[in-house]
Amino acid sequence: MGQRVRETERKYEAGDGPGRPLTPPDLEGLPSVAGIRRLDPVLLDAVYYDTAGLALAAHRTTLRRRTGGEDAGWHLKLPTGEPDTRTEVRVPLGAADDAPPEELRTEVAALLRGRPLNPVVRLRTTRHRTLLLDAEGGALAEIAHDEVAAYVYAAAAYETGAYETGADETGAYETGADADAGADGPSWTETEVELMRGPPALLDAVEERLTAAGQRRSASRSKLARALGDRLAEPPAPPGTPATAGEVATGYLREQLTAILALDPLVRRDQEDAVHRMRVATRRARSALKSFRRELDRGATDPLGAELKWLAAVLGTERDREVLADRVDGLLAEADPALVTAAVRDRLRGLAADSHARSHAALVRVLNGTRYFALLDRLEALLVLPPFLVSAAAPAHEAATAAVGRDHLRLRRQIQAALALPPGDDRDIALHEARKSAKRARYCGEAAQPVLGKRAAAHTGRMKSVQQLLGEHQDSVMCRAALGRTAREARAAGEPTEAYTALIAAERARAAAVEAELPDVWRSADRDI
After folding, report:
1. How far apart are CA 42 and CA 142, in angstroms?
2. Rounded-to-integer distance, Cα 212 and Cα 26, Å
3. Rounded (10°) angle between helices 498-525 and 396-419
4. Under a CB-based contact definition with an 8 Å cutoff, are residues 98 and 166 in contact?
5. Mean pLDDT of 290-301
6. In this predicted structure, what is the pLDDT of residue 177?
7. Roughly what angle, to the nearest 10 degrees, separates helices 425-452 and 396-419?
């Protein structure tokens, strides 16, 4: 895997406009700085890769191959959601560097969606560096004065896939031939200040000195963005407080899409809890489509909801296996040792013993498939051009209150109906449906928080408590079903089944305890927002 580092930096340009000469700042007397070291200039040559539609740049992500300097190699820069800070994934240059490394392509697979990567911009930079040092000589920050020349690859070349492998047929761009780099682009000077070991306040102190020298924060978020100019559409500004019902719905949906895209590479890397979190984001998105049916055209949202349901089910296969494994371990720890023979233990552990590596590989195959990529495309398209109904223009406060109220009323009716049934399969099914409605009510409360504030947050907390209790009940039901199947298999093999009978009884007692607790929990949660 590539080396992952956090990069915190700010960019500046001359106060009277891009391309103007930069006046060096006064760096004496900066807090925490004991010394200054000026380094020899370095020449940096970087080729940036993207899709024909600039999918990476549109998500504030950059991928480059850079030579020169101390960190030559492939660099993938990812947004973190924090100001001035990104995650950089670094992979060294290898023997065959005619295409971006597969591990970096995997990191951005949810953005690429099968589209080829092509060189889009080449930047040649002369960098003059100054290190700000602590008393031991360690670098607190680096100030880089950059003289940049950009060469933009002809749009026709990369739109037709001529550079799909990362080089033209001569490979000349790797050797630095300007003729193969495309048309001359802009040139400019800028200052980068990168925090290394220093305190965050050092960035502010340096900025004061740069401002005094006539510099200002750069208008472009990156060198690549400046080079592309009007080819790159600026991403929409972060939404403020929703003003309309439609904005409540799309704001929450946008949060879930952002979460899915951020979690996708974590799922591919098999990071702990990533599958569960991505599944939750998928369910939240689907729930929002249901809760805001009066604002969004169901002709557009119902098919999308079906695809979100499919994705949640795919993600749920691995998650359900994990939940069952944990539950079986708990049962074995509490069971009568006299009943738990080696054969019983083997059968129970076999319930959830499917190879994790095999199930994860199957999940990754789905995430590399056209159906998943098409789902992401459709979700993005919905946010670009929302299928608003007339009621989407209603004031956000009133619409959010009404949506939360509708989902709460739905849950109330389902819980009352379930509790009116005698214990048994029908009640189990009814409580499972109530659990799904409790999730929907919880997620609707989350969506309403930007406009309803603490009222919606309190409602969300109450719905979460109901959902978790009903989730415990459903886990018990599913575990009992798995134990029943195992008991039948053991009986068919001529093995004793007393242990399974005892464990099923223990799970039934757990479910009964939840059912006994539910009326009090619901009375506490059943409040109008």
Report:
1. 14
2. 9
3. 140
4. yes
5. 96
6. 37
7. 160
